[in-house]
């Protein structure tokens, strides 16, 4: 898989705009074949999986949400688009180089806070970390607070990656960070998603929204725990 493609550093916004527009159109129509071809085209153009996640699939899904909010798409069409987008993430995974050695000691728990069903951003972050060799335990949407505490105790991760996208999840996120810290004061916490408030950093969690940077940032945090 192309980790640092030739075109990666170019200011490619114009190219992204076209890819986003076309991907949005295919997702809205439920045209999974075209969606797949667009992702393959982006890969062939030298974009990395995380760049495609962050700059093409994410924005296309945002437009799906806008179209749903404006009544242009129904709930069923939104669900169909979401399912296709998750399949695109799986396609990207199949192009990813599988690390020869997993970093067994670097266990990362990836989960959405209680009540949070939106997990595409978290899935992207988990995939990117997994491809970089982290041992990712992906726990998915809506993990109850108690179960989160139990998972931190039982799996003893070095890091926990959280997502919170709904405004209502902001308070729950603070409780989740408190629960994790109570079980393991030293574990590294990163949190992404639209509902993560800047104030979360005061609780000792690291705000991070760009999946293209998640490996680099987490590696730095694990190397230098005082950054936590
Ligand atoms: C798909 C979708 C759903 C699906 C989710 C399915 C799933 N398995 O994920 C379903 C149908 C379940 C759903 C439900 C609801 N949804 Co909805 N949904 C969406 C939609 C269209 C796309 C979300 C998405 O996947 N985006 C793509 C991802 C990749 O983007 P992202 O989450 O922002 O993640 C990026 C970054 O934030 C970052 N990131 C995120 N998490 C993490 C974590 C880490 C560790 C890192 C490093 C990075 C990171 O990485 C990503 C890449 O850039 C959005 C529209 C939108 N604007 O996003 C609405 C949207 C989020 N939903 C909305 C609403 C209102 C709801 C419901 C309340 C609807 C209802 N009445 O039931 C429920 C609430 C469910 C709940 N309790 O969580 C609103 C939220 C408005 C608001 N801010 O209050 C939106 C914005 C739609 C809209 N325009 O109104 N939804």
Quick structural summary:
This protein has helices spanning about 15-30, 30-45, 50-70, 75-95, 120-130, 145-155, 170-185, 215-225; strands spanning about 105-110, 135-140, 160-165, 190, 205. It has about 230 residues and is of the alpha/beta class. The longest helix has 21 residues, at about 50-70.
Share of helical residues:
40-55%
**Structural class of the secondary structure composition?**
alpha/beta
Extended strand count:
5
Radius of gyration: 18 Å
Order of helices and strands: HHHHEHEHEHEEH
Quaternary status: single chain
SS summary, helix count:
8
> Biggest β-sheet, characterized?
5 strands, parallel
Mean pLDDT: 91
Cα distance spanning the termini: 31 Å
What is the H level of CATH, i.e. the homologous superfamily of the largest domain?
Cobalamin-binding domain
The structural domain count equals 2
CATH architecture of the largest domain: 3-Layer(aba) Sandwich
Which molecules are bound in this entry? cobalamin
Q: What shape does the CA trace take?
A: globular
Low-confidence stretches: 1-12
CATH topology description of the largest domain: Rossmann fold
- What's the CATH first level of the largest domain? Alpha Beta
| Beta-strand percentage range | 5-15%
Main β-sheet, spatial strand arrangement: 2-1-3-4-5
Structural notes for this entry:
- The protein has eight helices and five strands.
- Strands 2-1-3-4-5 form a five-stranded parallel β-sheet, with helices on both faces.
- It has two domains: 17-93, Methionine synthase domain (Methyltransferase, Methionine Synthase (B12-binding Domains), Chain A, domain 1), CATH 1.10.1240.10; 107-227, 3-Layer(aba) Sandwich (Rossmann fold), CATH 3.40.50.
- It is an alpha/beta fold and 228 residues long.
- The protein is globular.
- Helices cover 53% and strands 13% of the residues.
- Mean pLDDT is 91; it is low at 1-12.
- The site of cobalamin has 36 residues, from helix 3, helix 4, helix 5, strand 3 and strand 4.
């Amino acid at each position: 898989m192309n980790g640092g493609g030739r075109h990666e550093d170019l200011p490619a916004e114009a190219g992204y705009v076209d890819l986003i527009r076309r991907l949005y159109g295919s997702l809205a129509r439920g045209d999974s074949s075209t969606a797949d071809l667009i992702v393959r085209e982006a890969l062939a153009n030298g974009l990395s999986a995380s760049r495609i996640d962050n700059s093409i699939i994410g924005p296309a899904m945002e437009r799906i949400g806008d179209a749903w909010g404006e009544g242009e798409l129904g709930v069923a069409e939104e669900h169909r688009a979401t399912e296709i987008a998750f399949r695109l993430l799986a396609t990207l995974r199949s192009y990813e180089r599988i690390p020869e050695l997993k970093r067994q000691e670097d266990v990362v728990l990836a989960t959405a806070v209680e009540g949070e069903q939106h997990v595409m951003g978290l899935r992207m972050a988990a995939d990117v970390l997994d491809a970089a060799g982290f041992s990712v335990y992906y726990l998915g949407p809506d993990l109850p607070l108690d179960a989160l505490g139990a998972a931190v105790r039982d799996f003893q991760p070095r890091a926990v990656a959280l997502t919170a996208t709904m405004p209502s999840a902001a308070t729950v996120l603070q409780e989740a960070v408190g629960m994790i810290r109570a079980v393991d004061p030293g574990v590294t916490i990163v949190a992404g998603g639209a509902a993560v408030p800047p104030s979360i950093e005061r609780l000792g969690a690291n705000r991070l929204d760009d999946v293209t940077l998640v490996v680099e940032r987490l590696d730095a945090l694990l190397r230098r725990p005082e950054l936590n």
